[in-house]
Amino acid sequence: MSGMFSSGGRLTRALGASALAGRASWSAGKWTNLSTRLLCSDITIEQKKLFTPGPLGVSRSTKEAMLYDLGSRDESFIKIVRNLRDDIISLCDESPDKYTCIPVQGSGTFGVEAALTTSVPRHGAKVLIIANGAYGNRLADIVSAIGVKDCVKLSSPENIPLDLEAIENKLIEYGRNLSNVMAVHCETSSGQINPVEAIGQLVAKHAPQASYFIDAMSSFGSIPLSLSAARCSFMVTSANKCLEGVPGFSLVVADKEALKRCGGNSRSLSLDLCKQFHGLEANGQFRFTPPTHCILALRQALKELKEEGGIAARKQRYQENSSILRAAMVEMGFKELLQNEAEQSYIITSFQHPDHPNFNFKTFYTLLSDRGLCIYPGKVTAADCFRIGTIGHLYPEDVRLLLSAIKDVMAEMQIPLPLGQ
User: Fold this and answer.
1) How many CA atoms lie within 13 A of 249 on its CB side?
2) Quick check: helix, strand or coil at residue 388?
3) Which of 46, 213, 242, 345 stands the most exposed, by the fewest C-beta atoms within 10 Å?
């Protein structure tokens, strides 16, 4: 800490003599000449492009929005939270009379667990989980953690589309005994899009009393989803992901009538959505310390989403990113995990490891990271894969930069392209 404070004991605006490589200075209320390398003790942090499912890169102006300090009880902050909640419902294209937005501190999984511990009854619960990947399996883990004994997980292979007929048969089998049904919109472990609206309609037909939960963590803000058409009771998404805010809190969109029926269900103090909702409605305040800077960042990110042209325009950018990536990777000989074009999202794509003795994912990853480009390892059991995301603050020129780097890395690893020849 010796270099961090001035002689008067105050944290210097320049963060000390060696805190910022390039000697950033403070001018006119903002940092100028900020280097891409931040020195923190003995760790050097370099700016990177993130081709991942999250956390994701965000715009500089979104980061700069976090430079302001606000008290959680400031009238201005309370107004910002109220407007943000309204904006999310507007993005859903739903009526504020029917749905409400409840922000929850923590990662996306905090929001998922809050929705599940609040919506699953303490007594007499029977849960059906539709799972075809790691995040569907996580729903089952959460349900088990909150003590639910009667849980049925309808598991499907990670690399093929969900079977709606099998889902309907399961719903017919359990019918009116179900208290909750759960599914994931974009299963980012594989990149597969699941037909959650069609599933919701089957739930309404065969188990109309059941609460229907949708994990839309990596899809909301880009992939169209009608909560009303899906008969959705609870949907959870992230402030990061397609909204391009920073990580730090999640957003639960709840059907007000469904929420009313959940009082007393929660097995958690801090993750009780009913109490969180009532607190926000009563005085506009969080019950516990809110991520004020992250909320300011999402406020700016939503402004930029609107300026970009809304969800339709963002979808178009992500689709272009994905199309450029997939076409070039196929040309290089890489094979995609998913073979069904209709279910492949433009959020993230899983590629199988090349069948070449020189290929090692850790080496591949490290050489790309050394070039300032981050991808993700695979998260499926069906095959050895790696994943490349095309959402967040990424544009076609960023994807082309990554593709050029992949060619260089493959050459460095002495793996000829195209693969298999």
Assistant:
1) 24
2) strand
3) 46
Q: How far is CA 32 from CA 22, 29, 385, in A?
A: 10, 9, 41
What's the predicted TM-score (pTM) here?
0.90
Provide the pLDDT for residue 365: 97
Distance CA 93, CA 111 (A): 21
**DSSP state string for 263-302:** TT--S-STT-HHHHHHHHHHHS--SS---HHHHHHHHHHH
What are the tens digits of pLDDT across the range 188-235?
999 999 999 999 999 999 999 999 999 999 999 999 999 999 999 999
First to last CA, the chain: 56
**CA nearest to 368, candidates 318, 420, 411, 416:** 411
Q: What does the alpha-carbon distance between residue 263 and residue 362 come to, in Å, rounded to a whole number?
A: 48
Report the distance separating Cα 179 and Cα 207, nearest Å.
8
Residue with tokens 């500089």: 60
Category of 221 on φ-ψ map: left (φ > 0), alpha (ψ -120 to 50) or beta: left
Backbone angles phi, psi at 193, to 5 degrees: -95, 130
